[in-house]
Amino acid sequence: MPENAQAAKKAVPTLFTFVNAGFSGMVATCVVHPMDVIKNRIQVQQAKTSIGAVISSVYKNEGFLKFYSGLSAGLVRQATYTTVRLGIYNQLQEYWKHSHTSMPNFGVLTLMAGTAGAVGAFVGTPAEVALVRMTADGRLPRDQRRNYRNVFHAFGRIAKNEGITTLWRGSVATMGRAVVVNVSQLATYSQTKFLIASKLDMADGIGLHFCASMLSGFLTTFNSMPFDITKTRMQNLRSSNKPPGMVSVMVSIAKKEGVAALWKGFVPTYCRIGPHTVLTFLINEQIVNLYRYYAN
Length: 296
Prior knowledge:
This protein is mainly α. 75% of the residues lie in helices and 0% in strands.
């Protein structure tokens, strides 16, 4: 078979790329969602607290199932945000593979990842707003709780009571975070995987994917935390007035609580992002490998 025909045969269809991206993220979210609840609870508090204290408080006062509060929003977020950002990134890489003979350099990977992240974040912001509110709701006094039944109930209530644009509250911070996250996660993952495979002669497989995703997960957590806590604070606001800007909120947190507060909840965030990154990439890559094996 001619080389170009073989390459065309091995190309992954665009629809499959996007469906696989969303599915991978949703499966990973089902595993790590409790850490998202803990992370959001820590970040919305100005007082210092610990993972153990939050876990104990949630379990004693609200019950075990509260660790999965907001799961519907988390899944919708993956179905929107991850479908778009990982789907676009993977598709851009597919286009590159079939028009170039060499791997894209880190600058090109960064541009691909940043673009995919920004678009995905804008699409996924409404689910992000619902997720933050639903996971943080239990720590509010009973008379102040929003009591959203599910993500779609949250969408309806927010649009009706606060205006539909509130669903995109914190979108600039969310998109800024997404650019940092996706450059740190996607571009670093691709580059690290290439370097480990070429320098350490590690075969392409689960071991390589695990090592690359663990490193990218750590860098993602560290680089994105200031944006993450900023958008969490903005999205949890009750006021229907115009929210403060991303930079002013970030500066306010640093002044009132100290610069280290911008990394508040680092451990639970990494405990979420690390495994989520590993699971998402492992599932995504294995499904692609299975497709290529059976399709060809």
